[in-house]
Structures are given as structure tokens and as C-alpha cells.
Amino acid sequence: FGAIKEVQTGETADLSDYKHIWVFAEQRKGKLMNVALELIGEGHRLANEISADTQVCAVLVGNKIDHLAAECFAYGADKVIMIQDPLLEQYTTDGYTKVITDAIHEMKPEIVLYGATHIGRDLAPRIAARCNTGLTADCTRLDVKVSSYIEFAKKKTTLDISTLDPEDTSTGIKQTRPAFGGNLMATIICPNTRPQMSTVRPGVMQKREKVEGATGEIVTYKPTIAKSDIHIDVVDVVKSAKELVSLTDADIICSGGRGLGDASGFKLIQEFADKVGGVVGSSRAAVDAGWIDQSHQVGQTGTTVKPKIYFACGISGAIQHLAGMQTSDYIVAINKDADCPMMEVADFCIVGDLYKVIPQIIAEWDKAEDLHDAATRKEA
Amino acid sequence: MAFKIIVCAKQVPDTNVIKINPKTGTLIREGVPSILNHDDANALEEALKIKDQYPDTHITVITMGPPQANDLLFECIAMGADDGILVSDRAVGGSDTWATSNTLEAAVRKVGDFDLLWCGRQAIDGDTAQVGPQLAEKLGVPQVTYVQEFELDKDMKTITVKRQMEDGYELIKLQTPCMLTAIKELNSPRYMYMSGIFADKTMKTWNAKDIEVDLNTVGLEASPTNVFRSFTPAPKGKGIVITGDTEKEIADNLLVNLKEKQVI
Ligand SMILES: Cc1cc2nc3c(=O)[nH]c(=O)nc-3n(C[C@H](O)[C@H](O)[C@H](O)COP(=O)(O)OP(=O)(O)OC[C@H]3O[C@@H](n4cnc5c(N)ncnc54)[C@H](O)[C@@H]3O)c2cc1C
Ligand SMILES: Cc1cc2nc3c(=O)[nH]c(=O)nc-3n(C[C@H](O)[C@H](O)[C@H](O)COP(=O)(O)OP(=O)(O)OC[C@H]3O[C@@H](n4cnc5c(N)ncnc54)[C@H](O)[C@@H]3O)c2cc1C
Asked: Do A134 and B15 touch (CB under 8 A)?
């Protein structure tokens, strides 16, 4: 590697030179990742908290991806920065880092958001290091105004808010993230360098309602990139033959854990999911036991999910599992152990043998409407 | 010429047994065992596998941390690493990932040229997965993160790796020197064997001066990110216990409740 170079300190240039919010609109094979649209939505919320003239810019990097601009506008981008070159067709750390860093230096965004995907978490730290600025990892909540941070803290945390001044504007973007395996939440700020950057966990931010035909400004950024800038050779991109589990989009998830006892337990879980129109999830213990593929794993090292209903069947509720599903609208715990941690976070707790309970739920599912009517009549 | 590998490894509290004081939002460190970060054990294992095949491979483990992180070096050497270096200095305390990678960069440069630099994907305490890529950037070497399979060509220069993606993998070729980050799917780390400890291996402790790092680029003060607040998530109110004399009755009660909330 190269000769010893001078270590630069952070770019403490005039912070007010930096304006607008950039979203790295990650695309793979000409298709936008869901998280890109979520971040455009979140970018909007933040832009409103900063000022009326703060824009949300989707940064599209690739080759022959002009068609994606319309989708970014439809989901609320004010502007699209288009960076295209045949050398950017396939994601490479080197290629993307170079062109995005160059664009950042030229256009000076105040905030840059990336999805915390396998690509985002490879790319963002490399860019942050090249820009000598801070990067907050895997955020689950962002606030600019202290007043909205206080609202969040009141509802969702044990934080003592008496020390926070709602009018304080000095702290920039407050980026909240889990650490220590979800045991601790930390809010990180980046006060002295720009841009402020975060990777954001897929599935936690809200997309905006799609507005067909929405338009905005397209800025074409001509990248300076040569073959010699890219030091790796992507020989092949292989999709696993297994069917894609779309845990992040599922309304209902039926998850099984070690409590299933063996691999065949997932047959019951699959039947359950089929009945309720859900998707099969799992704990890591079930994955490690070889009962089910890793793509089904929910949790800190699996997928973060936020379904309407999460059925946790024979899952104890280890902190790393909870980290990935705790924000589900409703959690149903089915477990033999009335005192397991899952029962602490569940909205509905069923203490019992999952092999006895689940078949009954499957059998009764279609009668829910009638059962509810009967119950309300009885009450009246 | 010996093949040179550097492994960056971090000593972390075992987050499975960690307790947080919910009032102050701080860690209760007493009684929490410190362990070699999981992914870093996978990184070291992959280095050791190369050494199994090419015995003149030299593996140096670098860790940055307080004096007790020396225990980690013992463990790595007992697994089969050749040297261990502890970078320890009050001046580097409180570093964020930017500042941590500046320190590790200086330590790597002092160790000298390498063929492979291995990191773990992610440390289980800070959980950022940023140090590897930032270190690679500062050293000016290419990187591949999330490595699930690794192969070194006979030319000892060309590397083929599978990089894990959410829905499959990328097959990537690159040349040494480079930085790779290991994930648990890569291998199963071996156990320590005691004879390893007594062979002619060295352990050193370096301070900030030894590695000639610019003090304006390390430690809490120099870090671009700061912890603004830390806290524990709010406990949720206790849920409804669904009861019934038979499983059928339980199922019915659950469905009535879900219907009531209009989620089904
Ligand atoms: C760094 C790190 C990252 C991790 N990441 C993740 C992650 O992303 N996702 C994840 O899930 N885990 C993760 N883990 C593992 C986690 O700590 C737990 O080990 C795991 O979640 C336990 O899975 P489980 O609940 O299925 O198993 P167990 O904890 O063994 O629980 C089984 C449960 O089944 C119940 N049970 C048994 N039989 C029945 C029955 N017949 N009917 C009903 N209930 C029954 C038992 O009462 C028990 O509560 C991680 C760990 C580490 C260290
Ligand atoms: C609650 C909390 C939240 C934090 N959030 C952020 C944040 O969002 N952004 C930020 O920049 N900093 C953050 N930090 C600081 C960060 O944890 C430290 O800089 C830490 O030293 C390195 O980050 P990590 O533990 O996340 O390592 P990772 O980047 O996850 O580690 C990846 C790999 O780098 C190598 N490595 C990492 N640290 C060392 C070491 N000390 N010695 C040898 N090898 C090492 C290992 O191979 C490791 O597997 C946070 C700290 C805390 C306490």
C-alpha cells in the first residue's frame, strides 16, 4: 500500500455551506431498494424540521437507470442527482465511494442517509472516512428538532428529558441507534463536521404515499471514473435459489424458535402462515440448528420486521431477537413458559404447547368474524 | 517470502449477560465476562487456516483497548497467532470509529507491509461494522466485507471470495494487499491449545507515541461523533393473558381480541 500520508483532521469548514438532505437511492439491477423509498420519506420529515427551503435529493448511482428518477419523485424526492457510467453498472466499493465522495465535495449536502443494507454498510464508512466526517450506524430514529426528540423520548424511552432544551438548535441531527445487542440505545450527534451521515435500518422508516406523475429537478452529475479506480472484479452475482422471504413487507409473520423441537415443526408454522396470509420467520436458534434457512431469521443479526401481527411460537425472547421485532404492532407469544421474556413484550400471551394451540388457531381462523360478533352480542 | 497477515481483534463484554442500569443508562460492567469478539474469532480462524496450509505465514493480532485487553492476545496466540500487539493509551480512549481507525491505521503501518488484513464484520458492543472499511480507506487498500467464503490462489496474490448479500452472494476476485471482514458463516473458530502459548511468540504493548499517531486525530475530543444521550428502551405495559379451558377456547379468545383491535 501507499506511502505514509498526512492524516487529515475533520473538515471543520463553515458548516453553513452545507445544505439539503441526500438519500443514497440504492438500486440493484435497475430496481430501487425499498429502504431508499423509506429514506426519501424520512428525509422529508427531517427537511421540514430544518427549513422550508431544505430539499430531499435522491442520489442515483449506476448505469442506464434514468427510469428510476420518476419513482424517486413519486415517493417525494424534490431532486434527483443522477450519476451514471458503465463502470458503475455493478456496485463496487471503490467505484461508488469515488463518485459519491466527489459529488459530496462539490455539492456539499448537510446530511447523507444510506440504507443499512449489505451495500450501504460497506459503502458509507468508506465515504465517511474519505470525507473525514462522522457516521452513525444502523439508526432506528432520526430527529433534527430537540422538541421532536423529546416527544420520541417521552413515548419510547426511559430518558430524563428535563435536561433537554426544546429550542436548542446547536446539536444538528440526533441519530438514535441500538448498541450492545439492543440492550442500550444511544443518540449520536456529529456537531463539528459535515456532512452528517447515517445508515438507517431497513423497515423502520415510513414511505410516503405514492404520487403518480410527480416530477422534480434532475441534476446530471458526470462522474470522473476510470477502470484503474476499481480494484476488485465482481465475477458473478448469485441469487440464492431459495425463494425470497419478504419479511420486511409482511403484514403477518409466524415465527418459530427452538421450542418447535425439530425441523418438522416448521411444517406447522408454514401451514399457520399459509392460513393467515403471513410469512415464516424464525429465531437464530432455529437457524443454527439447521431447521430453516438464515433468510428467515428475525433479529439483530437477521431481519428487522414491523408487521401488524408477529406470532412468536416457541421463541423465548432473547434481546437480540427482540431487537428485530419489538416494534411490531401486535405481538402474540405462544410459549410453555409464562415467565419467558417474550411474554414481557407481548400484547397477547398464550401460555401453552404450541403444538396444541396453533392447530386450533388454524382451525378457527376463518370464524374470527363470527366469534367476534358473538362475543360483542354477549357483552351487550 | 513469508505471507503476512494482520488480524484486528476487539475485546468485548459478552452482550448476552450484560446488564444496563435503567436509571443511568450505563453498563453494569461487574461480573460481565470479556470475550474475543465473535466475528474476530472467525477472522483469526481464516488466517490460521492459511497458516495451516502455508506454515511460513506470519499472523500478527492487533487490539486497541485497556490493559486487560492483553488477555485477548493470550487467547489469540493460544489459538495459533504469532504475535500480539496491544495498543493502549489514555489518549485514544473514547474514540469513535473514525478515531479508532486512525489509531489502528498507525499501528498497522508500524507493523509494516501485509498481504492480508482481516477484521470482523462487526463488534458486538459498538455494533457499527464501520472500523474495517474505515481502516481500509485510510491504508488505501481495497476491501470486501461480509466474507462468507475465502480462497487464496497458489500465486499467493489472487483472492477469490464470496461476499454475502441479503439474497445470495457476490463472487469477487481481487489482489493482495486488501482488507476483508469475516462473518460467522465463514468458518468455525478452533479452540486454544496450550502448547501454542509457550512457543517463541511475542506480545508487545504500544502507546500513542510508539505508533506515532497524530494526537489530534484520536480520542474523544477528536472524534467527529459524540454520544448525545444514552438510555434503555421503555418497558412495555404487560399484555393480555389469553386463557381458556381448552386450546380451542384459547384460540377463539385470541381471535376475538385480534378482531377487536381490527388487525385481522
Ligand atoms: C451476537 C449475537 C447475535 C444474535 N442475533 C440473533 C438474531 O438476530 N435473532 C435471534 O433470534 N437470535 C439471535 N441471537 C441468539 C439469541 O441470543 C438466542 O439464543 C435465540 O434468539 C434463542 O432462540 P429461541 O428463542 O428460539 O430459543 P430458546 O431461547 O431456547 O427458547 C425456546 C423457547 O421455546 C419454548 N418452548 C419449548 N417447547 C415449547 C412448546 N412445545 N410450545 C411452546 N413453547 C415451547 C421454551 O419455553 C423457550 O421459551 C444472537 C446472539 C448473539 C450472541
Ligand atoms: C453506545 C455506543 C454507540 C456508538 N455509536 C457509534 C456510531 O454510531 N458511530 C461511530 O463512529 N462510533 C460509535 N461508537 C463508538 C465505537 O463503538 C467505537 O469507536 C469502537 O471503538 C469501534 O466501533 P465498534 O465497536 O462498532 O466496532 P466495529 O466497527 O463494529 O468493528 C468491526 C471490526 O473492527 C475491528 N475493531 C474494532 N474495534 C477494534 C479495536 N478496539 N481493536 C482492534 N480491532 C478493532 C474488529 O476486527 C471488529 O470486528 C459508539 C459507542 C457506543 C458506546
From this structure: no
